[in-house]
Amino acid sequence: MKGIILAGGSGSRLYPLTRSVSKQLVPVYDKPMIYYPLSTLLLAGIRDILVITTPHEQEGFRRLLKDGRWLGINISYATQGSPRGIAEAFIIGADFIGRDRVALILGDNIFYGDQFTKRLKSARTQRNGATVFAYQVRDPRQYGVVSFDKKGRPTSIVEKPQRPTSSFAVTGLYFVDHDVVSIASRQKPSARGELEITDVLRVYLRKRQLRVEALGRGFAWLDTGTHDSLLQASNFIQTIEQRQGLKVACLEEIAYRQGYITAADVARLAEPMKKNDYGQHLLRLVP
Known about the structure:
Largest sheet: 7 strands, mixed
Order of helices and strands: EEEHEHEHHEEHEEEEHHEEHHHH
Structural class: alpha/beta
Strand content: 15-25%
Distance between the termini: 33 Å
Number of helices: 11
C-alpha cells in the first residue's frame, strides 16, 4: 500500500503565522506538524509515501524529511498549484499510486488513542472499497458528516450540512483502493471550485464499499486549522508526553520499533538533539 500526505493549501486561517512558512511545518509542541500525519502512515506499516505541497513551500519539506532513507522509508514529492480540493490529491498522485491501494491523510490531522495502530492495520488489509474514520464533534456543520442506520452502517455523507443528521465528522484519513484515481477524475468541481472528497466517498457508499470506523471516547482527533486549535493541540501533546514520559509521533522511534532502522541509526539521529528532551528520549530507546 502507498501513502499520500496532502500538505498544500495557503494556511490563511493561521495568518500571519503562516505567511512565511507552510502550516504543516509549524510546530505542534516539540515537533513539526507534518510529523503527526507521517507517523500515522508509519504506524499503518506504509513505507512508500508521496508528500504533496505547494510549489513554493516544497523545499522546506525536502530539507526536513529528505528522501526518507533516514527512517528506512521512501518519500517522494509532488505539487498542488492551488487548493483545488482533497480529491485532487489522487489525480496528482495517479502515477505514484499505480495499481496499488493508497492511504491519504491531511497534513494537519493529529490522531491519538489506544489500539489506533490495530485499527490502521485493519483498514490496510481491506482489499476493495474505502475505509474512513469518523469522530463525534460538537459542531458537525463544519465538517463532512456521516450518518448511520440502526445497525451502524453508513447511509449518507454530506459536506458541511446546515442541519446535520449525525454528530460524526469524517476525519482527514482515507484508505481507498486504486479505483479512486478514476473515481476522482470523473468528479466535477463543487460550487467552491474544488474536487470534494465527500463526492468520491459517496461513490463507494453507493457501491456499498464504504466502511466507517467510529473513533470513540478513548481517541483524540485534533484539527490544527486555527490559532486556538493549534494551541490546544500543542497543550494536549505536552500533557501526554510529560505525564507519561512518552513521545507522540516520534518518527525515529516508530521506524526503529517497526524494524526499518537499527539501534545504531537511532543513536546517530539522536546525537544532534542530545541536549533536548527529544534527543534524550531517543537515546533511552537504545542500549
